[in-house]
Amino acid sequence: MGDLEIRAAVTEDVPAIVGMLADDPLGAQRESPDDLTPYLAALDRLTADPNQHLVVAVREGRVVGTLQLTVVPGLSRKGATRSIIEAVRIHADERGSGLGTRLIEWAIAESRGQGCQLVQLTSDVTRTDAHRFYERLGFTASHVGFKLPL
């Protein structure tokens, strides 16, 4: 895998993160890499919230992956804390290299370290390759997700 650092995202990482978010058919429709203003405002909100962890994977000074981990305290499951993994993206040059596995393993370890009893994620129904990837890592497709655009 070479030299890899997983660290908190900073302002200078935003163009690379947004580029990865936009680098697929779904992201190309909903992301705007030419206007970073809303992304920078979002990074400020994420950075201010101790339950939010936007991280990047960096190799040789270059951002090659990202994900967001959210820690959610709750009452269900006897007051269990859970984490939610979102926006997992791997740079096109790195896909198939094991980087995605490293990022998810980081998120699981961080979740354990924060006392979470459950890690969950959603994946668009069209992302069948991603579904196989998550199942290989031990995730089960146990629920049906719903979304309502506002």
Set down the secondary structure blueprint.
Elements lengths: L4 E4 L5 H8 L3 H6 L6 H12 L3 E8 L2 E11 L3 H4 L2 E9 L8 H15 L4 E4 L6 H9 L14
Parallel strand pairs: 4-5
Antiparallel strand pairs: 1-2, 2-3, 3-4
Characterise this structure.
It is a single chain. The protein is of the alpha+beta class. The protein has 6 helices and 5 strands. Strands 1-2-3-4-5 form a 5-stranded mixed β-sheet, with helices on both faces. The longest helix has 15 residues. The chain is globular, with a radius of gyration of 15 Å. The relative contact order is 0.15. The model has no long low-confidence stretch (mean pLDDT 94).
Descriptive key words:
alpha+beta; 36% helix; 6 helices; 150 residues
Relative strand content: 15-25%
Helix/strand-derived category reads: alpha+beta
Distance between the termini: 41 Å
The sequence of SSEs as H and E is: EHHHEEHEHEH
Percent helix: 25-40%
**What would you report as the Rg, rounded to the nearest angstrom?**
15 Å
Q: Which ranges are low-confidence, i.e. pLDDT below 50, for 5 or more consecutive residues?
A: none
Please work out how many helical segments DSSP would assign. Answer: 6
Instruction: Output the strand order for the largest sheet.
Output: 1-2-3-4-5
